[in-house]
Amino acid sequence: MIVALNFAPELTGIGKYVGEMTEYLTSSGFDVRVITAPPYYPEWRVGEGYSATAWRKECRHAATVFRCPLYVPKRRSGLHRIVHLASFALSSLPVIFWQAIRWRPEVIWVVEPTLGYVPASWLAGRLVRARLWLHVQDFEVDAAFGLGLVRSGFARRIAQAVESWLMRRFDRVTSISGSMVARLASKRVPAHKLGELPNWVDVQRIRPVSRENPLRAELGIPADRLVLLYSGNMGEKQGLEMIVEAARSLADHASLLFLMCGEGVARARIEKLAAGLPNMRFMPLQPLERLNELLSLSDIHLLPQRAGIEDLVLPSKLTGILASARPVVAAAPADSDLAQAAAAGGLVVAPGDANAFAAALKTLCADATLRERLGAQGRAYAVARWDRQTVLGKFCEDLNAVM
Fold it and tell me: Do 41 and 107 lie in a common domain?
């Protein structure tokens, strides 16, 4: 039984990975049920054909899926976000217990964020003697305080104590990178429970193709124009202001186009910052079947990130970026997991340093041979470490061992 706020058909972030994992598990012979919310991310509106107020049952990827009501706020202030998360914790609670008691799963697999439904999942698992697996995609508690979304020192101590207590009660606790597993250890999760389950990429679907593909033609981008692409969630963790500053400093380079593709809470603000820049363009998130075209029309990928959250999150988009065999310019501390992975297929600068970011872009734009070499290195890195079949095959082995 999988409990996750985000699930297919969401195209980015956690929902994408939980959907792909479910598909792999059912195709490998596992009987899977999913308790989730209606799709809403990254647009922050409930998808067409779904309801924010009703429970419903459906079949997806050969799994039984239960959708629970969810409050999706138009304004994403701290209070609205808390109500948003609490709404799913409450609406999913009876379904978690109903399915656990009626169906009696062997394993309950829970993904954080969010922490809100972790207590119910843990208690339901203990009632039916299921094995309990917590997978941390994002340290939401630490990130909330690190980004200043919540400032109370007392609240921080309480939240972190509760989080640590809950984590230690699970039979298996994993995260997506080495530094994030180390942070789990710092929360006093016993070493024998810890493991790494990285995000993956389908290297057959995301593969090198010509930059002169149909999507570039549809967008009317000339062949002689270099595309500097940011694709994915446009949130506050990404530090997208750096891209706007770089575009402004390179505005006199007519051959460059900064292309911003995606949705998110920060998009309107970033569009306002970029108003009037002739070398910057925004477009909506593209469907999954066009993802390879989108990644491949890029000449250089852009991957900024705010300082201070390097061991709290690892951008999931990096797997597809490197698999596309296009170089990346990333902003990350030199000793972070993001920097080490991005350096395999690109250039890395310090977070917040817009001048260094623009200088790295100029270096790559001026050297097609370097772009090609770094792109090939990145592709090899992605195939070796993040191949979907390899990662999920190992996960199935671990799941059988837990069972």
Answer: yes
pLDDT at 300: 97
Task: Render pLDDT for 211-240 as a digit per residue (tens, 0 to 9).
Answer: 888 999 999 999 899 999 999 888 877 889
The residue segments making up the domain with residue 66 are 2-200+387-402
Domain assignment of residue 205, yes or no: no
Structure tokens given for 304: 């900024």
Task: Check residues 22 and 316 and name the one with the higher pLDDT.
Answer: 22
Rounded Cα–Cα distance for residues 90 and 317 (Å): 31
Domain-embedded: residue 209: no
What does the pLDDT read at residue 145? 67
**Same domain, residue pair 260 and 345:** yes
CATH number at residue 102: 3.40.50.2000
How many CA atoms, within 13 angstroms, populate the side-chain half-sphere of residue 346?
Answer: 34
Residue 351 half-sphere exposure toward CB, CA atoms < 13 A: 19
* 235 Cβ neighbours under 8 A, 6+ residues apart: 42, 264, 265, 266
- Phi first, then psi: give them for residue 88, nearest 5 degrees: -75, -35
- DSSP designation for 260: E
User: Is 46 in the same domain as 175?
Assistant: yes
Co-location of 238 and 170 in the same domain: no
Degrees (nearest 5) of the Cα angle 291, 253, 338? 45
